[in-house]
Write a structure and sequence with these properties.
heterodimer, A: mainly alpha, Four Helix Bundle (Hemerythrin (Met), subunit A), two-stranded antiparallel sheet, disordered C terminus, B: mainly alpha, 21 helices, globular
Chain lengths: ~180, ~475
């Protein structure tokens, strides 16, 4: 057996189990930490595919920054004694959603299995990345040359998010000069 | 990379980008002064209109790097979107003042939304589409929740945000399936792939349906319509108007592009076409029936207009169904969108002038006996309501007529009959407010309509446009016939 295949199976299993734990855990903090597990195994999968830079980014950005944000929000909102429990929902709701999810999963599986080959290869083969001088060079090449329009558009997306947040979260209603809670 | 000739072609978007930054700077100087932000927004939108008209005159059809299309279709919709937003920006100042919402962030967010919508209508790449969709949606979520002291507004914004975010994820999943099946995210390359591909297309079909779901949600077609009434009711009237026009137009342009993503003439896509048609038939009939029947039960005017929007979505989908086998019929969809946007622009501007006694938004009873107190507003409102219903001599008649004709031409007679029945049911819903205004005696608790003279002139202009297009629709039809789809 191939070692990389074995590693894939291990990472994929951890990812699936971790995401199941995210939705089955009773307290938000444990859910958040299960999510860390999922992010780590994703980083492993990226590394297996040869995308070491993306794997490092995954750990830095997701497990580092975004998880801190998650935990921070949970802390700020305060944790009530009563936690959400999957047992509280009605049996009919649980049944319908489970059946729907299984149906969707089977359609997706059938679709992926049915296609004889996944043609999506991309132009950056391992040799080409070596030739360019590594992952980082290849990514910058794509990001700032071919996809520069996307890049600029994303900066406007972030700008929009900032303006929207400020407009909604501003404490004082600047128009009337009165304070509103 | 971009060379100088490409820069000329993406000029409208560059102007919008600079306009957004300039508006931000202007609003950061002194937050109480709104005039610079408003003037800069108007200036930016006018410039965008001029440049897109210039690009339209160039007669070019080019796809820059495979991402952004500059063609008659994209330039015309860009012009149209900026014109509609300009009308709202000019006309809604008084309303914002009245609602104590008049801060310069409003103009900033509107410009950002217009940027998203304008990239969306010319996107030819699944990545660009996704980013543009988010650029358009994020400011829209904030604008919906702009009345921060109103719990309905907060609820609407949160609902819209969560559902929109979830559907964005659905879009990404679908896009990844399409990429896996076809090997490209560019629509032109996917089209080429579909020509030569033979074999199983299930993976592609699943992806295709998932990306369509995301935009059917934005266009509020029937199984995905649950957010619409709440969001319409909760958001400020000016924002509701922008959503009904700008977001609907952008969503439908993308929907049409996505539907025609593959070459249906190709051998392995013939059964595929049938299953896609089946999907649109179900969605269109559901939207028509749900929209028209629930509309006549509504008491709140904005909820009524939300269900009316769902009903109109059904008609546009019917027109889309007609284009599946006859792509040259696509002009019926553009014509419908243009007509509907003109009508709703006028109607929402008119509603933004109302002053109700209580703070619960405009109810139908608030219009009681308006005829005796304010004949001008009654006449204008009647024109818009009757246009929505599709009365002859208004633009609403010809939009419905062209859509019906294009579906009959491709053999969808049963669905045209269903749509005609729904039109009759819907007409009752639109005639109810008109009857209340004209036939009842004035009610002292009813709403007042007092807007500025310039706003009145703007609304009268739109009403006249409704009537003129209802008698001479040829010019607009000719214009829309030039807006061809290019694979």
């Amino acid at each position: 057996m191939d070692w990389s295949f074995l590693a894939f199976v291990i990472f994929a299993t951890i990812a699936i189990l971790g995401s199941l734990m995210v939705i089955l855990q009773k307290t938000p903090v444990s859910s958040a930490f299960s999510l860390v597990l999922v992010f780590f195994s994703f980083a492993g999968l990226y590394a297996l595919l040869g995308a070491h830079f993306i794997a490092a980014l995954q750990i830095l950005v997701y497990t580092g920054a975004i998880m801190v944000l998650f935990v921070f929000v949970i802390m700020l909102l305060g944790q009530d004694e009563k936690t959400t429990d999957i047992k509280d929902t009605s049996l009919l709701f649980k049944g319908v959603t489970t059946l729907g999810a299984i149906g969707l999963l089977s359609v997706f599986l059938r679709a992926v299995m049915g296609s004889k080959e996944i043609v999506a290869k991309g132009q950056y083969s391992e040799e080409k990345i070596k030739e360019l001088g590594g992952n980082l060079q290849a990514i910058s090449e794509v990001l700032f040359k071919d996809y520069v329009f996307h890049f600029e558009l994303v900066s406007f997306l972030i700008l929009g998010a900032i303006v929207a947040t400020v407009a909604l979260a501003k404490r004082k209603n600047t128009y009337s000069g009165e304070y509103h809670e | 990379m971009f060379d100088s000739s490409t820069i000329t072609l993406i000029f409208p978007w560059i102007i919008l980008g600079f306009g957004i930054m300039a508006t931000m700077l202007a609003s950061s100087v002194r937050i109480e002064t709104r005039l610079p932000a408003k003037l800069l927004t108007i200036f930016t939108l006018v410039l965008v209109m001029i440049t897109s008209a210039k690009l339209f005159n160039l007669d070019t059809t080019i796809t820059i790097n495979g991402f952004i299309e500059v063609s008659h279709l994209s330039c015309m919709t860009l012009f149209f979107i900026s014109a509609i937003s300009l009308i709202f920006v000019v006309g809604s100042g008084g309303y914002l003042e009245k609602e104590k919402l008049h801060i310069s962030d409003f103009y900033n967010l509107v410009l950002l939304m217009v940027l998203g919508a304008s990239v969306l209508v010319s996107a030819k790449d699944l990545f660009v589409m996704f980013i543009a969709l988010e650029v358009m949606s994020l400011p829209a979520y904030a604008l919906v929740g702009f009345r921060r002291n109103d719990s309905r507004s907060n609820e609407a914004a949160l609902k819209y945000f969560i559902l929109g975010g979830a559907l964005g994820a659905v879009y990404l999943l679908g896009a990844s399936f399409i990429f896996g099946a076809s090997g490209s995210t560019q629509l032109s390359q996917i089209f080429e792939w579909s020509k030569i591909h033979n074999g199983d297309v299930l993976l592609f079909l699943v992806g295709h349906i998932l990306v369509l779901f995301a935009f059917l949600f934005k266009a509020a077609a029937a199984p995905f319509h649950f957010w619409k009434p709440d969001v319409y009711e909760g958001s400020p009237v000016a924002v509701t108007g922008l959503m009904a026009t700008v977001i609907t137009t952008a969503a439908f342009v993308v929907l049409v592009r996505l539907f025609h993503m593959v070459d249906f003439q190709s051998q392995s896509f013939v059964p595929y076409l049938e299953s896609l048609k089946q999907l649109i038939r179900v969605v269109a009939v559901l939207s028509l029936v749900v929209g028209s029947t629930i509309m006549i039960l509504q008491k709140n005017l904005k909820r009524l207009l939300a269900y009316s929007a769902i009903n109109h979505t059904g008609y546009i989908l019917l027109g889309l169904l007609g284009t599946m086998s006859k792509p040259e019929q696509i002009y019926s969809v553009w014509f419908y969108l243009a007509g509907y946007a003109v009508i709703s622009c006028g109607l929402f501007l008119l509603l933004s002038q109302s002053e109700t006694r209580n703070d619960q938004g405009l109810e139908l009873v608030d219009l009681t006996g308006l005829m005796k107190r304010n004949p001008l507003v009654t006449a204008l409102a009647s024109i818009f309501f009757l246009s929505m219903a599709g009365m002859p001599f208004t633009v609403g008649f010809f939009t419905k007529y062209t859509v019906f004709m294009s579906s009959i031409a491709s053999g969808e007679v049963v669905f045209v009959i269903i749509a005609a029945i729904c039109t009759v049911i819907g007409a009752y819903g639109y005639l109810r407010p008109v009857a209340l205004m004209v036939m009842r005696d004035p009610d002292p608790t009813a709403a007042e309509f007092n807007g500025t003279k310039s706003n009145q002139a703007l609304i009268i202009m739109l009403a006249v446009l409704c009537l003129v297009l209802g008698v001479f629709p040829q010019a607009l039809i000719q214009l829309t016939k030039g807006m061809e789809l290019i694979p």
